[in-house]
Specification:
- With 82 residues, the chain is α+β, with helices and mostly antiparallel strands.
- The chain has one domain.
- Helix content is 33%, strand content 22%.
- Strands 1, 2, 3 and 4 form a four-stranded antiparallel beta sheet that branches.
- It starts with a strand and ends in a 12-residue tail after the last helix.
Length: 82
């Protein structure tokens, strides 16, 4: 889901909200005291804050093992596995 930055029109406080695109229009209507501000490139939330290796299935470990086997021994520690 996209993360949006909003600024309170009265206080100037900037807050970040995690809102689906389908809910965005209703959020704007329900919160007239907030205006959208763009402080950085839009962000996205991922699956529960897990890292890429945690989200990868068990098949990925097999791929990593094959890659490590083909590398010279001095470079094998550069490949992080699950």
């Amino acid at each position: 889901m996209p993360l949006y930055d909003f600024q309170n029109k009265e206080t100037g406080e900037v807050v970040e909200h995690n809102i689906s695109i389908s809910e965005y229009d209703n959020f704007i209507k329900d919160n007239p005291d907030l205006k959208r501000v763009i402080l950085k490139a839009p962000g996205l939330t991922s699956s529960g804050g897990q890292g890429a290796l945690q989200r990868a299935g068990d098949g990925w470990k097999e791929v990593q093992d094959k890659v490590k086997a083909g590398l010279p021994p001095s470079l094998r520690d550069n490949i992080k596995t699950k």
